[in-house]
C-alpha cells in the first residue's frame, strides 16, 4: 500500500478502499524507484499559474517514457496548491499539458491518467464552487455525490478508488480541467454573466484577473 506523507501532516495510510495493482513482473521503467512517502518539500519545480493549456485537453502521462519526473511533479503540484490554499490543482493550470492533478487530504495524493468509471447521476449535490484559476469567483452547480475512478499513482501503479461528498466534488472539478473544461462552462450563460458582473464589481479595481 502506498502512503503519501506531506510535511506538517500526520502520517497516515490511504483508506482501505484504495486498491493498488503493483507491478510484479519486473517490467518497470528504468527510472522507477518506489519510495514509501512523497514530501511536498521535495518538489523542485518553479510553478505559477499559466492559462496556455487551461481550455485544452491534456495528454496522457507516459510512465514508460516520462515527460518529466512524476514524483517531483506530484510533490511540486502539492507544494504549489498548498501555497495558494487550494483543495486541488491540475497540471494544466500551471502550464503543464499532462493528465495529472493533486488533491488535498491527510495525506494529499496525486492522480495520473484518471478514468472515471462511475458517477451517481441520480444523487447530486448543489454547492458553491471556486477555482484557483478564477480567484474570487464562486458558482453554484450540481455534481454527483459519488464517483469511482481508476488512475495511476506517481510510480505508475494502478489505483481504483471511490470518492464521495466534497472529495468527489474536488476530484470531478480537477478531472474536468484535464478535459479542457472548467466550472464556468457547467452553468448557464445567464448565471455565468451574473457571476462575472458581481466579480468585476468586487475585484475589478484589484490586481486579480480571470482567464477569459
Which labels suit this protein?
212 residues, 20% helix, Peptide Deformylase, 25% strand
Provide a quick synopsis of the model:
The protein is an alpha+beta fold and 212 residues long. It has helices at 70-83, 165-178, 189-203, and strands spanning 19-21, 88-90, 100-103, 109-119, 124-131, 134-144, 146-152, 158-164.
Would you write up a description of this structure?
The chain has 212 residues and is α+β, with helices and mostly antiparallel strands. The chain has a single domain, classed as Peptide Deformylase (Alpha-Beta Complex), CATH 3.90.45.10. It is built from three helices and eight strands; from the N terminus they run βαβββββββαα. The protein has helices at residues 70-83, 165-178, 189-203, and strands spanning 19-21, 88-90, 100-103, 109-119, 124-131, 134-144, 146-152, 158-164. The protein has a six-stranded antiparallel β-sheet with strand order 1-8-7-4-3-2. Strands 5-6 form a two-stranded antiparallel ribbon. A hairpin with a 5-residue loop joins β3 and β4. The longest helix has 15 residues, at 189-203. It is globular and about 45 Å long. The relative contact order is 0.17.
Strand-pairing-aware structural class: alpha+beta
Share in β-strands: 25-35%
Count of folded domains: 1
Query: What is the helix tally?
Result: 3
CATH topology: Peptide Deformylase
Q: Summarize the biggest pleated sheet.
A: 6 strands, antiparallel
Strand order of the largest sheet: 1-8-7-4-3-2
Indicate the mean pLDDT: 84
Overall outline: globular
Amino acid at each position: 500500500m502506498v502512503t503519501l506523507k506531506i510535511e506538517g501532516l500526520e502520517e497516515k495510510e490511504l483508506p482501505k478502499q484504495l486498491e493498488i495493482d503493483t507491478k510484479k513482473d519486473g517490467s518497470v521503467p528504468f527510472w522507477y524507484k518506489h519510495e514509501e512517502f512523497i514530501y511536498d518539500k521535495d518538489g523542485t519545480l518553479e510553478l505559477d499559474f499559466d492559462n496556455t493549456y487551461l481550455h485544452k485537453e491534456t495528454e496522457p502521462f507516459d510512465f514508460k517514457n516520462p515527460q518529466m519526473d512524476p514524483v517531483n511533479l506530484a510533490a511540486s503540484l502539492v507544494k504549489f496548491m498548498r501555497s495558494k490554499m487550494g483543495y486541488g490543482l491540475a497540471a494544466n493550470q500551471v502550464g503543464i499539458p499532462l493528465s495529472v492533478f493533486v488533491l488535498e487530504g491527510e495525506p494529499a495524493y496525486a492522480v495520473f491518467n484518471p478514468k472515471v468509471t462511475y458517477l451517481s447521476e441520480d444523487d447530486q449535490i448543489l454547492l458553491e464552487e471556486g477555482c484557483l484559476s478564477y480567484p474570487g469567483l464562486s458558482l453554484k452547480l450540481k455534481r454527483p455525490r459519488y464517483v469511482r475512478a481508476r488512475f495511476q499513482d506517481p510510480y505508475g501503479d494502478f489505483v481504483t478508488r471511490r470518492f464521495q461528498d466534497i472529495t468527489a466534488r474536488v476530484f470531478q472539478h480537477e478531472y474536468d480541467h484535464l478535459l479542457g473544461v472548467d466550472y464556468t462552462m457547467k452553468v448557464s450563460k445567464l448565471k455565468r454573466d451574473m457571476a462575472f458582473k458581481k466579480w468585476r464589481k468586487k475585484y475589478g479595481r484589484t490586481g486579480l484577473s480571470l482567464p477569459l
